[in-house]
Structures are given as C-alpha cells and as structure tokens.
Amino acid sequence: MSDPLEGFLAALALQDTGARTSEDIFTGPSQWMPQGRVFGGQVLAQSLVAAQRTIPDDRVVHSMHGYFLRPGDVNLPITFSVDRIHDGRSFSTRRTQAYQNGQPILSMIASFQDEDPGLDHQVDMPDDLPDPESLPAAAESLAGVDHPVASFWANERPFEMRHVPSPLYFSVEGEHVAHQAVWLKAIGPLPDDPNLHRAALAYASDYSILEPILRRHGVPWSRPGIRVASLDHAMWWHRFGRVDEWILYTQESPTAVGGRGLSLGRLYSRDGVLLASVAQEGMVRVPDGSPR
C-alpha cells in the first residue's frame, strides 16, 4: 500500500507541459479511489494549484467557484488549462478547465488578491465541542468492519477525520439533525509552502460537506443504492492556517429538495481563527426517496 500523504503530494505536483498558446497547460495524476471515480477535492485542489502557478507569489487566492461537469476516471491523468482572465492593481482572476479524454470534468474560476490591511471580524468558533484527541480515529471506528471501502476510509486517506458526534459510515447515531462538526488534519507534516496549504484545505473541504444532509435523514454512506455527487463548490479563504494541524470544520445543511442538497461550512484553526468558508450543492439520491 502506497503512502497516502505521498500520493496526495504527488497529485498536487503538477507538471508544466511548456505549451503556450492562449492558455497555460499543466498535467497531473489521478489518485486511486475505491469506486474508480476521481475525488472531487483532488481535482479542485489541482485546478487551484494550476491557477496559482500563473500568479505572483505575493498575490494569494481568496475565492474559488467550481462546477463538477463529469465524473473523472482514476486510471487517467488530468490536463489543466489556465486562462489568465484579468490582472489588476490588487486582484487577478483565473479560469481553470480540467480535462480527461478531451472532455471537461471541472470548470473553475478563482480570484487572487494582494494581502492588504482592512476591517477585521469573524464569527466565533463553537466552544462546546470535544477536543479531537477525545474522539476515535477513523481506523478505530472501522476496526473489524468487513466492507470493501472500509479499509480505504480507515487507512488510505491523506487526512485524519474525527466526527462530532459520530461518523456516518455505517449508521447514524443520535438525533437526526442537519448539522455536524469534523476535526481534520493531514496525517503527517506538509511542506511550508502556504499555497500548498491553501490547496490542501480545498482538497479536505470536499470530504464531508454533504454529510449534514445524510445525517438529517438518518442515511449512512453504506446505504445500498445511495448516490451522492458534488455539483458545485464555492470556497472563500479568509486567513492562513496550516492543514497539518487540527482544523475544526463546522457544517450545516439549510435545505434539500429535488434530489439536491445544499451544505455550508466553516473551517477554524484549533485556536479559533476562521480560516475559510465553504458552500456546496450536491446530488443526493436515496432509494425510494426516503430513508428506511
């Protein structure tokens, strides 16, 4: 079994093809996933890395909006084309298209800004949640489970995740509410490159953002016939934080209807600094239209 963190870093180490037409072209590998489809967080992070390669170091990402167009194939590399839409005095805008077999699988637009002083406030982090050390790791929660995906969830992801109140892998414990929290961090140290940590935050933000929809209806990930897929993903970076230190991801779903659900999230450093905000709409289809 390959090291999950090494595979994660390799996926984000895009290769510049040297092609220069009206766009900058990069290529990157796909990480293996048990169901054969590229993880959405991977292609989001790679698309951001591709855009970052065309931006001066002193201008950092503050927002990203992406649409997932087609499922990606983990057996194929991905080509990223970056369009340098705009470079102003304080802001730059880039559009990244991700392709496999000549077909777009993701379209993303991102905005970058010089770091400027200004007004500063934030919504406080909840102070009534357990510390990550008091919660079971995924490997503990899944110990002894005989399921084709359980080993991957437990041992092969580059991020550790600890749910509050409990994970949704095979059951939904407690009250069926449309909110939850997840402590997460990389399973090992990451390089100091701040842009890598921003891209890693985008990667990890896609793991569990739709789970409040499932929790509200008592539907675990293992429900036979369930179909969940990200449709679009928006993210705003507010302040810098390291992703190889514990981050609290608070999540809630204000609505689900028509086979789609919306989830909102906030990512905090352990000492309470609001690092980023997330919004995602996803397709969520459960057999018979409702839980058992």
From TrEMBL:
The cross-references to Gene3D superfamilies, in alphabetical order and at most eight, read: Acyl-CoA thioesterase, double hotdog domain
Checking InterPro entries in the record gives: Acyl-CoA_hotdog, Acyl_CoA_thio, HotDog_dom_sf, TesB_ACOT8-like_N, TesB_C
Specify the domain of life of the species encoding this protein. Answer: Bacteria
Residue intervals of the Acyl-CoA thioesterase-like N-terminal HotDog domain: 29-113
Q: Could you tell me which SUPFAM superfamilies the record lists for this protein?
A: Thioesterase/thiol ester dehydrase-isomerase
Q: List each copy of the Acyl-CoA thioesterase 2 C-terminal domain by range.
A: 165-283
What keywords is this UniProt entry annotated with?
A: Hydrolase
PANTHER family listed in its UniProt record: ACYL-COA THIOESTERASE, ACYL-COENZYME A THIOESTERASE 8
Q: Which family does it belong to?
A: Belongs to the C/M/P thioester hydrolase family.
The entry's protein name is: Acyl-CoA thioesterase II
